[in-house]
Write a structure and sequence with these properties.
This protein has about 375 residues and is α+β, with helices and mostly antiparallel strands. The protein contains ten helices and 20 strands.
């Protein structure tokens, strides 16, 4: 049996694909329902990445293509492919759009200011419109993806390998498993994962009632959804601060509301509900999908790695991670989960772009000559 720890979008997708590949799966979370943390607070905007090309944009757009098909087929009532208009963040970004265009995901359309205004967006110079993009109902997608998979509410406090099995120990019991998938997001208290550089990015979302009709979603350095049933979503992964609640002073949406009012008529927006949560990202912004290194044993047995030597890394047996999806969790999760499930159950090799080992070598070289694990 494989136990997946964490029931955000990464965890539920890992459990779903393991289940569909024929594996015996148990989903565990400290909350009683899936998507109670950062995933539940997500706007779940599903769109391609724009830029000047490169591995991260290529991977993101591969994941988008897979996610678009996956959500349309599996969750047609919860995925809303109304299209997303990507507009420049500032005048400098506007000049860069000409450089981005050759690398755009296709199909796309080049919109001018008049076309953007017809969609309800003012003071906008135009941008790239991606007709296959859209947004999803975050909590509903997670709930439905977890349907039919055994679920246990437990706060796992300790993870041990004993007698060929993993023991997941909580305050109110213990679970034994052949293998474990860590999908715990920005919190990784069970093992030393410092080499992965996982850190939290705070995100906020507001759901608003409005009589305004926005036929397409818009993304700048925040996202405003199309109108459905008299409601829109406004959100962003936008605060990089260890204490985000302190700096927002009780108004996490104030800055987003100000930005939105500059490009749309928001005068009648009435806040219905606020969602906030932390998303996890890696040091290099690529997802983390694969086996987990026993960093303490590796450094003790091969201290020369701290001087740049290449050695055979020591991994924990039957322990995997799916993490670091950042603000694009609903884009990355389906494809990354399929990669992981097919590796665990079929032995398929990992894409080097997402393999967590990539981050170990540079981290190890930065350590002092005498390494000590912090308890």
């Amino acid at each position: 049996m494989t136990v997946v720890i964490g029931a955000g979008i990464a965890g539920v997708m890992a459990a779903r694909f393991l289940h569909e590949e024929g594996g015996e799966v148990l989903l565990v979370d400290r909350s009683r329902v899936p998507a109670s943390g950062g995933s539940g607070a997500a706007g779940a905007f599903i769109s391609p990445k724009i830029g000047k090309g490169g591995p991260l944009q290529e991977l993101t757009n591969e994941a988008f293509a897979f996610a678009h098909r996956f959500y349309r087929e599996r969750f047609p009532e919860q995925f809303h492919p109304t299209g997303v208009l990507r507009i420049p963040k500032n005048p400098e970004d506007k000049t860069r759009f000409a450089l981005y265009e050759p690398h755009n995901y296709r199909p796309f359309e080049r919109w001018d200011a008049a076309r953007a205004a017809a969609a309800g967006y003012r003071n906008v110079p135009g941008g790239f419109f991606f007709p296959e993009a859209g947004d999803a109902d975050a909590q509903e997608v997670c709930r439905l993806a977890a349907a039919g998979i055994p679920f246990v509410q437990m706060d796992i406090r300790k993870l041990e390998r004993t007698g060929g099995l993993w023991q997941l120990i909580g305050n109110d019991g213990m679970i034994e498993a052949d293998s474990v998938v860590l999908a715990t997001g920005y919190e990784s208290p069970l093992l030393d994962l410092r080499y992965m550089g996982i850190r939290g990015l705070w995100g906020s979302r507001g759901d608003y009632a409005t009589a305004r009709r926005f036929p397409v979603s818009c993304h700048k350095d925040f996202s405003l959804s199309s109108t459905r049933n008299g409601r829109v979503k406004l959100g962003a992964t936008h605060v990089k601060h260890p204490e985000p609640c302190r700096i927002c002073d009780g108004r996490p949406l104030a800055e987003l509301e100000r930005k939105a009012s500059a490009i749309a008529d928001t005068a009648d927006f009435r806040l219905i509900e606020t969602f906030c949560g932390m998303r996890a990202t890696s040091r290099d912004h690529f997802p983390l999908v694969g086996p987990v290194i026993d960093a303490e044993r590796t450094l003790e047995e091969f201290p020369e790695v701290m001087r740049g030597a290449k050695v055979e890394l020591i991994h924990y047996e039957n322990l995997w991670i799916l993490n670091g999806l950042g603000g694009r969790g609903f884009v990355f999760a389906p494809l990354m989960a399929r990669h992981l499930a097919r590796h665990i159950l079929r032995g398929e090799s990992f894409d080097g772009r997402i393999h967590p080992d990539r981050l170990f070598w540079k981290w190890a070289r930065r350590l002092p000559n005498e390494w000590r694990v912090e308890n």
